[in-house]
Amino acid sequence: MEESLSTNKADEQEEIVNNFFPFLRTYKNGRVERLMGIDIVPPSDDPEAHVRSKDVVFSQQPNLSSRLYLPKNLEPSQKLPLLLHYHGGGFVIETPYSPNYHKFCNILAAEANIIIVSVDYRRAPEHPLPAAYDDSWAALKWVASHSTGDGPEEWINNHADLSKVFLAGDSAGANIAHNVGMRSGLEKLGGVEIVGMVLIHPYFWGKEAVGGESKEEGVRLMINKIWYFACPETSGCDDPLINPGADPKLESLGCKKVIVFVAEKDILRDRGWFYYESLKQCGWGGAVEIVEAKEENHVFHLSNPENENAKIMFQNIASFISQH
Prior knowledge:
alpha/beta
């Protein structure tokens, strides 16, 4: 009888509370089971991309690292633009050390001839938003600490041109890049000049559908649920953190230019277009452009970087960065 009771209690503790299959599940006992984005690869000297990488701590409390990417064959004093990259995964899965992100950064660092700081941040639900925003801002401050040439990381001291800094990310990472850009515009962080942002299939949303966005109640409820799961203290789906088009301070965005990538078959496609239009109309004053990949789905470039549309994306990003 006692064994039966203890078994029932154990079964109850293992009861699923949130099921976001195929991404993650949470259980009544507090366990978080991530189903995707759990594989990691070490830094490397990539022979194909001609890029070196290494992991560097940027925060002691909390303990967080970034993976740095540096093109090979540089002159001793050669300076390159620096791009901070924030990975996607709905604020809940993936890391900078995931195979797909490692490959993406290797390709981009070589294509654009830039230094990349691929940022780790704390994830929900263990660390709800704004933890990821705060960590991502801390990474930018860490980069800025190298502005006098005597920061903690030699690759940045020796080779980063901190007057040419870019923020980038895909999906939730694009959301993070935007919100770091907003904070930069409002707080005026010294030591770095954020020239532009690269937003790939940005995870933005809103209470009301825009453009041709799905109005199906089940779809909208699921996306709403994911947002509340990551950000329990949110004011809702018109919170400026998830809906920049509802942000009265959007014109304060702290960069000079933005490129937005959308995919034709992505459920978030119309949000990207809405962001593009909102930036054009809010009085911001910078330059914004948008590129749509036909016949493609959300973050297609990660699973198939050799795809022709993915190659065009890399070329567009490289061109965007070089035209500073």
